Each structure stands twice: as C-alpha cells, then as structure tokens.
Amino acid sequence: MVSSQPKYELIQEVGRGTYGVVYEAAVRRTGARVAVKKIRCHSPENVELALREFWALSSIQSQHPNVIHLEECVLQRDTLAQSMSHGSTSSLYRELVETSLKGEIAFNPRLAYYLWFVMDFCDGGDMNAYLLSRKPSRRTNTSFMLQLSSALAFLHRNQIIHRDLKPDNILISQGPAAAAAAGRGPEPTLKVADFGLSRVCSASGLSPEDPASVNKCFLSTACGTDFYMAPEVWEGHYTAKADIFALGVIIWAMVERITFVDAETQKELLGSYVLQGSEMVPLGEALLENPRLELLIPARRKKSMSAAMRQLIRDALSANPQERPDAVELELRLVRIACRELDWDT
Ligand SMILES: Nc1ncnc2c1ncn2[C@@H]1O[C@H](COP(=O)(O)OP(=O)(O)O)[C@@H](O)[C@H]1O
Ligand SMILES: [Mg+2]
Questions:
Q1: Counting atoms of ligand 1 from 1, which one is nearest the CA of 18?
Q2: Is the pTM of this model over 0.90?
Q3: Which annotated residues bind ATP (predicted)?
Q4: pLDDT confidence tier of residue 263, bands split at 50, 70 and 90
Q5: Is residue 14 within 6 Å of ligand 1 at its C-beta?
Q6: Long-range contacts for 202-211 (Cβ within 8 Å, ≥24 apart)?
C-alpha cells in the first residue's frame, strides 16, 4: 500500500525515549485514538531497535489484554509511506534489514527513513508514575501482579523474551469507565510495552509449540536496565528466566514501595536493591558477586506480605535461573495467592 494522504493526525507528544518520540494521534477516518511511536532510522542501532520491536509485536498472532497491540507499522522514506509486513519483499524493508545485519547504513544516508508504530493508546501514563502518585493499595498490587504475570506467560508462550521489563515500560489504560468510577471502580489495565530490546526465539531451532523452549533459548547480549537485570544477564548468558527475575524485582518493589532515584534522570523509580554501606547495588549485580546472598524479604514490615508471597518473590529472585519458576508457574502461584488475599479482604 502506498499512500500520499496522511492516515493519522498527530495530536500531542506524550513520551520521549532514547530512540523515539511517541505521540497521541487520531485515525482521520474514524477519530479513534492511537499512539504513534516514530523512530528515525539514521543509525544501525536505531534500525536494529525498531526492527526488534516490529518483529516481536508482529510475530504475535493473537492479542492479549496486557500486551500492547501493534495495529500497523508504517515505513516512510521522505514522502513515500508504505505499510510494512513481516518478511516483506519491498526494497525499503530489505535495506533496513541489511542495515541491522551489517551494522552499517545500507541506504542513501541523505534520505530520511522513519518507522511509525501505530498501537493502542494508553491514557494513564506508566506504572511507575501511576503507583507513586497514589497511596499503596493491596487490591491494586494484586491486580497488577496478575496482569503482569499473565502478560509474561503469554509472551513466553509466543517465544518472546522482553529483556527490558521495568515499571517505565509498563503502561496504563484507564478507559472512560474507570475514570468515571473515580478510582473506586475496576483497577486499570496494564499493557507491557517497549519491545525495542526483545528477542523472538522461535527461529532458534527450538520447538515453537513447546512453551518451555523459550527457557532453553540462550542469549548473550547483556542488555536491560541495571536495577532489573538478572545476575546471568550481567555475565551475558541467559534465557527467558531473566524476565522472571525482572518481574520479581518489580513485584517486590511494588508490594513494599521500595524506590531509588535514577542517577541520570533524577526520577524516583520503583525497584528493589541491596544496600552495601550507603551504596544501592542492583540485586542482580549483588547476586552475581555472591550467589549465596540472603535477600531480606520483606525488607520492612513483616506483615506486608503473606508467607506464600515472600516465597514466590524469593524464588523469582533466585541467583540460579533454573531455580526460578517459569512464567506459567509464576502466574499459577500468583492466582492462588490472589484468591487467598481476596478471601482476607472480604
Ligand atoms: N502506546 C502508548 N500510549 C501512550 N504512551 C506511550 C505509548 N507507548 C509509549 N508511550 C510513552 O512514550 C514513552 C517512551 O516509549 P517507549 O516505547 O518506552 O520507548 P523507548 O524505547 O524510547 O523507551 C513511554 O514511557 C510512555 O510514556
Ligand atoms: Mg522505554
């Protein structure tokens, strides 16, 4: 499809990451709200990141309520725009793939290439800002844990390793119904987003039908964000169990409201760590140095979590990835914990 008439109208900028700008936009024909992430493909790193996001999101055949849905990906070169599909034979797409594989620009660098990701619009900001601007709520925490574990089980079933799970990359959809209920209605919907560092593992020769195979797909590029990185990621030899560790860090921090201030942005972020003197050391780094390190969970009040919850967080944060539950088991255990907690509440 080649079109000259713009299909979307940009309304306002809503986010800016390392590689792209995100806008709230409207579909011209229907007025529907969407989010549009624009990535300029002017360096091999940007192209690789954009393609990773595209491959992961476009490889998912079905939708999940807690995973951002890619409606369309548009490749633009100057005034020419075309909808991009997986394995497309278009020369524009091939030039991008070549750029990412070779690590050098494989097209005329004077031409401006952009990738536009059209996805569902999340009107409630990110999970970090959402939680830190509200009083702690056991109900919200329980709902968020269930939504996140369900999203992760879905991604791993689809052979996708996210590799950058953190509250900043988890977005909130409040929707008109939730807003009308002024916060007392159903909990908002979380959407796992930002697949720029993700990897699809089904091409690795492992069986895509075997949900456990994602845990046998070994990766070696150390990537992610320090405070959420598993010990084996620091070493550069890891599997999907690295996502389980990141979720463990997020859940522990959410339940106990543990935060740190990001040195670069000065933003307060939810994330657990260990204190060595006055220094905050990321859990993964500390466990890499000393795999027998005993984590103090809960870190604050004994009553902040049940024994089952404490054990689950401990297991998700095991130094040895094989001792961590896989995503399916994690979800099952959280559902059991949630059922018991709901019993306590009523
Ligand atoms: N679908 C969306 N709806 C609303 N805001 C979004 C959406 N996607 C991203 N954003 C905003 O843009 C920011 C950057 O997006 P992200 O995908 O994380 O890009 P980056 O790879 O640059 O970090 C997010 O933290 C969020 O604030
Ligand atoms: Mg991000």
A1: 22
A2: yes
A3: 38
A4: confident
A5: yes
A6: 202/59, 202/159, 206/159, 208/159, 211/156, 211/157, 211/326, 211/328
